[in-house]
Structure formats: structure tokens, C-alpha cells
Amino acid sequence: MKAFVIGEQDGVQALRETTRPDPEPAFGQVILAPRLVSLNNRDLQIIRGSYGAKKPADRIPVSEGVGEIVAVGEGVSGFAPGDRVIAPHFVNWTSGDFGYHAFGHDLGVTHDGWLAERVAVPAAALVRVPAGLSDRQVAALPSAALTAWNAVVEVGRVKAGDVVLTLGTGGVSTFALQIAKANGARVATTSSSDEKLARARELGADITINYRTHADWAAELMKATNNAGADIIVETGGPATLSQSLAAAAVNGRIVIIGVTAGQSGEGLPNYGTIIGKNLTLRGIAEGSREMLARLLRAVEANNIEPVVAKTFAFAEAADAYAHLASADHVGKVMIQF
Fold first, then answer.
1. How far apart are CA 222 and CA 188, in angstroms?
2. Within 13 Å of residue 281, how many CA atoms lie on the same side as its CB?
């Protein structure tokens, strides 16, 4: 089979194409033929060597996609060749609360991921895709959308009329916008690009703030909400934006901490007391379980949610797809078609 590996992890140029023997299914596993896969920010961190310790140079990357079962191992029931399926990248986290066991089998990190013509996945992690949903609708659900779902629905407990703040217009933030709107919430979005904010408004964003024009974007958010603030904040920026997220939060708000796309902060939190004064909940999350993914899939089907796809590349153009994601000129997802 053809595959890509992460090489020396010194930048996007490290990605290289190779050939491998087709994998055979172990007990409880299936072999999938990926049809469409989706890139995430962590794929960039991995190829740059900044996602924890460096991985083996022959690791096949990419955490999410949709594929068709081509072989079934012993001990597998309920799935058959020809089934179209998705799976969370923490394949050991099937249900219940998060635990460290989730990190034991992480597609694209501890085990080979989706950027190959064949990938082995435990059958227990799979969710069958309804016939009425396209590959495009489901390829980015298992990581980006599942993280957004966990933040907005599972942890954020969104309800109609809530204000949900999303930072930026990447994959997680865009899905958070769509999920929040499907639940009747108002959505505020930040970006450094007026063009991206216009796209966010097309998707339903009620409040848009350019953080280059308004460096104190938290103050702008408070103005736009009559000083009420955001009930749920999908905090994808990290330490560099957390202080403003605290300032932008409503009383009893939930700040769900996901990523570090804005980099590190040069100082501690000057408004630390705000956490107590507003009775805030700060919660870190790591994607979500198979059980959550099944609920998300039902919501996508019921609401006919269409993902925002910036660009789709051919499998042979995988390096170009990585470079496009790294440029940060996109809104939504970058995908690779097999």
C-alpha cells in the first residue's frame, strides 16, 4: 500500500511518501480503506516535532477520516466488509469518563493513522455512517467536530439563548459555531481577518470581533452582550488568550480549554481572581469518546450539518495539504481525498 510517514519531524517538508505491506487484521480489528481524511492542528504540531516527544520516523499520521471496511479480524461482530465507518482517534475511550487509558492507543500518534491506503482500527471504536450522509459530512467528525461537541454540549451544557464564544475560524471553532447554532445559542467569533469574519457571519455568527482591530476583544464582547459575557467559551488559543477569555466570560460561565494555537503567554493570569469572582468553570478536554461521537453523528444527521471545507487535496498532494493548513489562510477544514 501507499502511505505517508512523518520522517524527522522538522517541519512540513519532513512528510514523505513510502510503500508498506498491507496490514492484516488482528483479533478484534478491522482494516479500513480510507476514502476522505481531514487534517488538524495537531497534525502540524506532530510534523514539526512539537506535539510531546518526537514519534518514530515511520509513523503514519492523521487522526480522523471516513473509510470502508475491507477486512474483518477474528472476534469482530456487527461489522462487515463494505461498511462505511468513522472512529475517534482515542480508540480505547469508548464510553464513560475520560481516563489516561485513552492515550494508550491514539491513531496517528502511538499507532499508525489514516494517511495510508489501509489502516487497522479496533472494531469496538467504530461508528457506522448512515447512508444519507456524505463522506464530506463525516470525515472531520471524529476529531475536530467531536472536540467541539464535547466542549459545547457535553461540558458546556449549551441551551437556547446561551452566548457561545469561539476563538478563530479553524476546524474546531467552526464546528462549535455550527453545533451551538443548531442548539439555539447565539455565537460570537473572533479572527484577525475581516474576510474570515464575514464567512463566520454567513454560517450564523451573531457577533464578530477582529482582534487586530480590537486588541481588547474581551471588552468588545462585553459591549456586544450588554456586559453579560459568554456563557461558554471554546478556548482554542491557549495561555496567550486565556486571560481575555476570563474577562469575556459570563457569571457561572464555562471555559473549555482545548488548544494552544495562539502560543504561550509571557506572564501569569493578571485576572486570576476573576475565576472566583465569576464562579467560573475551567475544564480541559481531550477530544471525546466513541459514545459522544455516536451522539454527534445523530445530531449531524438530524440537522443536516454541512462542514466548512476550505480545500480538498488528492492523496498524492498530502504535503501541499499540510502546507495549506500551515498557511492559516483557510476557514474550516483541509481534507485529503483518496
1. 11
2. 14
Write the CA distances from 185 to 48, 159, 217, 313, integer angstroms: 37, 6, 20, 33
Q: Which three cell numbers stand for residue 117?
A: 491506503
Q: Using one digit for the tens of pLDDT, what is the confidence trace for 102-159?
A: 999 999 999 999 999 999 999 999 999 999 999 999 999 999 999 999 999 999 999 9
Closest CA to 154 of 171, 129, 179: 179
**Residue of 195, 190, 165, 191 whose CA lies nearest to 180:** 165
Q: Is 40 exposed, middle or buried (0-12, 13-18, 19+ CB in 10 A)?
A: buried
Helix (H) or strand (E) run with residue 302 in it: helix 290-303
Residue that has been written with the C-alpha cell 469572582 in this structure = 277
Bridge partners (DSSP) listed for residue 234: 166, 256
- Predicted confidence band of residue 331 (pLDDT cuts 50, 70, 90): confident
Average pLDDT of the segment spanning 175-203: 96
